[in-house]
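Attaching the record inline, Q. Sequence:
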Amino acid sequence: MIELKTRAEQFLKSIQAEGERECAAIREKTDTEVRETLSAAKAEEQARADRTVAFEASRAKTQANRALSAARTEARASLAARRQALADEAFAAAAEKLRAFTEGEDYTAWLQAEAKILAGRLGQGTVLYARPQDLARLGDLPAGCTAEADPSIELGGLRAENKAAHMAADDTLTSRLAAQRPWFLENAGLSIEL
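Structure, as predicted:
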């Protein structure tokens, strides 16, 4: 009986040892699976976090670029308006000087010289148009030319037309002044750079 009891104890110890080995293997396998699952979850969450950070950074950069672009556009518009105002002031001052010029005797000589030049270029049958107050200043007209009043001429100068030759010219002080605006804007140092 002792032998049976010893065998039973050994059998029981053997079963117990086998159970402990299997439990240890299950624990190890479980721990490995938990570590692997946790590692995969961490990697997935890190990748998601990286994508979110990249997306938000890209969105913030896009918003900043839009805000910067809008600010630059607004600054350019402001500078362009100031540039236009400065040009308008300069041309208003020039127009006043031209008005003063049209009151003097130098204007009469200039007007007569321009009448001869226009009549020479457009030929016989040329009609010269001048401000009503300038008609008397024209003096003797070139042969084959006539003069008519044109109240639409603001500052002075002449317009000319030869219908037979299908030619016309605008040599008014207003058109000369307007022709200077592009040159002025290009050369006055009022460039817009941002």
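Residues 72 and 194 are 7 Å apart (CA to CA). The mean pLDDT is 86.

More tomorrow.
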